[in-house]
Amino acid sequence: MPRLNSRLALSAIAGAAIWASFPSAAVPTISVMGSARPVGLRLTDFDIAPEIVHLRAGQRVLLRITNDSPLPHNLTAPEFFAASLAPVAEASSVRQGRIAISPRKSVTLVLAPRAGRYAMKCSHPLHRMLGMSGTIVVEP
Ligand SMILES: [Cu+2]
Description:
By secondary structure, this protein is of the alpha/beta class. The chain is built from two helices and nine strands.
């Protein structure tokens, strides 16, 4: 898939440029060429597992979000996505801090978050109340 690859490469370059524009003292540097640590999130009726995700600031993460349910769900975490400097790949799937995931489908993102504690939830009516919430903890 040459077209996809070149799109990813362009996104990676754009990501590097965004990183470069931050003061180096404030933001850990990342290597665009470095490998990303795979992390999985599973959405079910009505749960997000794991409930607490531990990440490291500046470390590239290959985040795979799977909707293992017959219902549509989403992962809503606007502060987290805003602090994660470009989901490098598939950035277009994040809209207003939210990724919708169709039943029995997965979405994979590459990102590099900044330190902090971020709330995540499914924003569909009642889903959060029923248990679809959690926390992303990004250690400095
Ligand atoms: Cu949901």
